TrEMBL record:
SMART domains: HDc (SM00471). Residues 755-796 are annotated as: Disordered. It comes from the Bacteria. Keywords: Membrane, Transmembrane, Transmembrane helix. This is HDIG domain-containing protein. It holds the Pfam family HD.
Amino acid sequence: MRNFSHQKKAITRFLVTHTGIRLGLLCIILVSLSLFMVPDMPSLQYHLDVGDVAPRNIKAPRNFIIENSEATETSRQLAAASVRVVYDLDEGLGPKVIANVQAGFHEMRQLLEEPVPLPSGETAPLSMDALRSQKVWTAKPRFENLLGIPVSEGAFRLLEREAFSQNIEDKITEILRAIYENGVVANKTVLLDEQDRGVTLRTLESDKETTETNLRRFYGPDQARTMVRIVGEPLLRGMHYNQINLIVDLSQRLIRPNITLNRSETQKRTREATSTVKPVLYQIKAGEMLLREGERVTPVHKIKLDALASQIRTQDIFRSNAGNVFLSLLILLTAYCLCFRRPLSQSRNPNKNMFLLTTVLLSVLAMAKGFQVLTLPMVSEAASFTSPTPLLIVLPVAGAAMLICLFFTMTQALPFALVMGSLTAIVLKADLALALFFILSGAMGAYWMQDCKERKVFVKAGWKLGLFHIFLALALLLQMENISLSLFFWMLILAFTGGMLSGILTAGLVPLLEIIFDYTTDIKLLELANPEQPLLRRLMLEAPGTYNHAMIVGTLAEAAASEIGAHSLLARVGGYYHDIGKLSKPLYFIENQGGGKNSHDKLAPSMSALILITHVRDGVSMARQHKLGEAITDIIAQHHGRSLIRFFYEKANMLKGEADPVNADDYRYPGPRPQTREAAIVMMADVVEAASRTLENPTSARIQGLVQKMINSIFSDSQLDECDITLKDLHRIARSFNKILTGIYHHRIEYAESAAPGGTKKKNVHTDRQLPESDAPQGKGSDPKSDAHLKRLGMS
């Protein structure tokens, strides 16, 4: 089981981090680009249908070949018609049937000649005949099996009476031999359809082939049965009519076709004959007039134009597409090395991020290519559109850069917009102006999607992008010639529509991509921060102490993250959910206990530590079950790191004694240690908030000393070794904690109460003060020797 777990982890690590996966994604992009470019449409100047009026003179720019498809098809039909139908002749069928007849009669005669032993006490000759007859009738199935046909009782009785005579056998075999030598065809009507050109008769035993033109000589099944009487008439003359009927009946039923149609061989020879026919071609010379201006396109013109467009594509497409694919490769490699390699290497899941980038990029390219194929007929039919550019600006290409900005940062969105715009222009065979349109549109779309925390931002970004598209469209219009009023308005409308579509498309795809790729955007974090979320509501009702603790931790984490430039919203929501695992056993945690009773008093230290450790695993399980996202799940798993549950560890040591020390690893949280700054902040906020509840007199100085001690303890316990947090960051975090905790535990006015017996006055006792959390992580330096400050954190 452990080996399987290790193998699973190794496979997961390979899929998540191995560079070979990224190389495979690059190959997928290049192959997809090649496929998008191969089905390139012919040039618009040759794209005319039958009945269209030529807008200008069209001459052949080069020599090219045209296939006369009608003449080629006629030649193929003639070649197919010249192939004779193949029939198979089974020469061995007749001799086989005759041999079976001879064997059957011979066995029955032998059976009659064999002596029959008399039963004891029986001497009458009549009994011997009866026994011989019984013996013959017992062999009737064997006789029928040899002949291959059933024999009626009357016919068999007649054969028995005639003692299966050699004469009857000879008559049957002579008739069968005459019929089979002539040939019996399964379907003579189909055979006679080939009377004019004959058929190929192929002998199965020798594969010898002959051409038969006299097809009427062969018998059909009905004709063969009729010929039995005709052939047998001179042979059977003088015989008793019962014998004649017996011989004719058996002979008719023993006849089977020995000539059959071989359809598969005929079709094979027809295909071979048509495949050898070469196309009928003729040449068009360079400069030859194909179509004159104002002339209506005829089917002949259409053939020439299609052939010209096809041959131009055949000759030029490989070279041009190879150059475009190579240029795309250089663009992708440059963008990866300069803009994406370092951020991906710092990510915990670089291959997933690259897979998202690849998916979005290929989706945009596929959408753009499909739209171009659909709009080309519109371009050729609409008089106002002389090029596809006015229609292509409606594509919501900028939506892809907006998505990348939402899931990553502006740093990745800008180079992605550059790559996406360039590759889209290459796939569409567009000019530089349209490529710049897509690049600038994507960049500005990403810019307006920064810090998106509300759904209405999509709409705002959409109409802003639409207005920006209008200015870009005006720039494109100024570069065109012969601008019509309809073209002017159409381009402005399509440009604005493209911007709005980008915002709408982004809004629709964000939730889908969040689910598929398990990403957590700011919008999702804000939704998770809602107190009406199921887990937070359960926490408030079932574990109010933990809920209050989580709210303060979230506040501390958000302020600290803002101080050091981390993701403050993620830190706050991570603080809200970091202890949801306590919902499994809320009464085993000090903040939820009341009446001075502690559920751990009756438990062994190891069991108490196990309960505290379990709340991390339970929290991760709940987070995955409720789909909180990978970022929140990681914070829940890492908010205790590998810290030691010191209280129960020391209690266990005290119970066992120094002679048998307790293994400290059994009292540590499973980890991992915090991998991100946000997880580290939540860890420190959790420890500081729990410890601050133990202060007897929470003055500013005491709070500052406590914060410094707790952070130093975490730092000295190596819990922050795996995240990129600095001492300067720790100083700012401590200062932020000091400020908030001082505000929470500010000095309150003490109200004098009635004098107590003895003349003393009682002070107001706060009932909200709790005992220290037993699961609060304490550093290694809890002894006096390790209390030396690493740094006076939080001092202004």
